[in-house]
Amino acid sequence: MLFIKETNGQYRIASKDDVIFEATHIYNSYFAKGAEISKPADSADYLKLKLAQYEHEVFICLFLDNQNRVISCDEISHGTIDSASVYPREVVKATLRHNANAVIFAHNHPSGIAVPSNADKMITLKLKDALNTIDVRVLDHIVIGDGTYSFAEHGLL
């Protein structure tokens, strides 16, 4: 049980919204421009915080510079409870807009099952191929459910 101290000095039990707000605050402070990602798996916990608030699929791109420092973390697509449409053209445009040198993809599975579908694998390959044409590295694609699944850790990139 978490408690929140009010401005009047009184304490109250934290609501789900309070917890989500605090998690979002932690997430936003970590992914401030210039934060360094030393390895793709380091970003998984923070991406979980970003996606925890959604009951539908959301696809995110974490844009990095040539030193793997965060440039931006953008929500690219919002979908339904079991899918989100992601278009390589839009990802390439966003990558060029941020002048990114590398990207990490992430999306949530509201079902809680953090195993990539065949569609997840196919879109990852399409995105990797599209970004390869502009010399941008794809470091990972993280599927977030009750746990996390890293494409890089499973040799899928």
Radius of gyration, taken over Cα atoms and rounded to an integer in Å:
17 Å
At CATH level 2, the architecture is 3-Layer(aba) Sandwich
Average pLDDT figure? 85
One letter per element, helices H and strands E, the order comes to EEHHEEHEHEE
Task: Report helical residue fraction.
Answer: 25-40%
Q: Please, what is the CATH homologous superfamily?
A: Cytidine Deaminase, domain 2
Extract low-pLDDT stretches: none
The number of helices is: 4
Q: What's the number of structural domains?
A: 1
- Looking across the biggest beta sheet, what order are the strands in? 4-3-5-6-7
Report how far the terminal alpha carbons are from each other: 40 Å
- Name the beta content range: 25-35%
Strand segment tally = 7
Shape: globular
Reading off the top of the CATH hierarchy, the class is best stated as Alpha Beta
Note the main sheet. 5 strands, mixed
Structure description:
With 157 residues, the protein is of the alpha+beta class. The protein has one domain (31-150): Cytidine Deaminase, domain 2 (3-Layer(aba) Sandwich), CATH 3.40.140.10. Helix content is 31%, strand content 25%. It contains four helices and seven strands, in the order ββααββαβαββ. Strands 4-3-5-6-7 form a five-stranded mixed β-sheet, sandwiched between helices. The protein has a two-stranded antiparallel sheet with strand order 1-2. A hairpin with a 5-residue loop joins strand 3 (58-64) and strand 4. Helix 3 (88-98) crosses helix 4 (118-132). The protein is globular, with a radius of gyration of 17 Å.
